[in-house]
UniProtKB/TrEMBL annotation:
GO terms for molecular function: deoxyribonuclease IV (phage-T4-induced) activity; DNA binding; DNA-(apurinic or apyrimidinic site) endonuclease activity; phosphoric diester hydrolase activity; zinc ion binding. HAMAP family: Nfo (MF_00152). Transmembrane segments: none annotated. It comes from Candidatus Yanofskybacteria bacterium RIFCSPHIGHO2_02_FULL_50_12. Zn(2+) 2 binds at residues 143, 175, 212, 254. The gene is nfo. The lineage of its organism: Bacteria, Candidatus Yanofskyibacteriota. This is Probable endonuclease 4. It comes from the Bacteria. It catalyses: Endonucleolytic cleavage to 5'-phosphooligonucleotide end-products.
Amino acid sequence: MRRIGCHVSIAGGVFKAPERAAELGCEVFQMFSRSPQGGAAPKITPEIELAFKEEMIKHKQKECFIHAPYYINFASSNKAIRSSSARIVREELERGSQIGAQYVMFHPGSAKDMDRNEALKITAEGVAKIMDSYKGSTELLLEISAGTGNVMGDTFEELESIITMSGYNLGICIDSAHMFASGYDIKTQEGFKKTLSAISKTVGKSAIKLIHANDSKIELGGRRDRHDHIGAGKIGREGFEHLMDEFNLDFILETEHDKVKEDIIVLKNLRSNL
């Protein structure tokens, strides 16, 4: 484990992603399987499925992960939006199962005009709707949010509530920039210990399945989602040393592609020093 990768484009088809990942130095990678902005998902035919799997082997990519589209919102007061969100994420799980993706991760959404407890309840109901009768191989992960505005799931307590109320034992994707912006100090040794304690008291360390490794342009507790290159932001390399030392998981970068190759090298160097 502790394999390193980043988010890559699927322009031209999902089967193009493994080669792009390899060119960047990835050992694993993340992608959208459809446009993150909207529209119908391109069909994954048996031919595309086979081509994708062949490219994974050819380019020595060990795993792939799918990020759900940004526009889904399980905490919306609009029932049609909630229903559509559940349908789309379920589709992503099915599509992931077709091509052998390990995880699909998603952001719960934002509750603008309702009580937060009610928003947590309907978010959990949406998760249950996704998972009802699902038999595929791809696992669903909740991703911790940065806490901007009325965004849900910005604390481990809220993630635990969603999981418990849904009735399904989901995993968690932790994003270093989101955690930091939400007030979880992973930069200092003492702060990181407190963060681990918060995880242990809520979802549990075993629930953490994947790391989104992003430095933050935003200060601790700044409650905004702004990624920076590793070591260039407010977290610094120390935070990623802590994460890598503690979690034997895959690390996915979501930094700008102008320097993502360098970020991959930085993480590989940190790994080699363990």
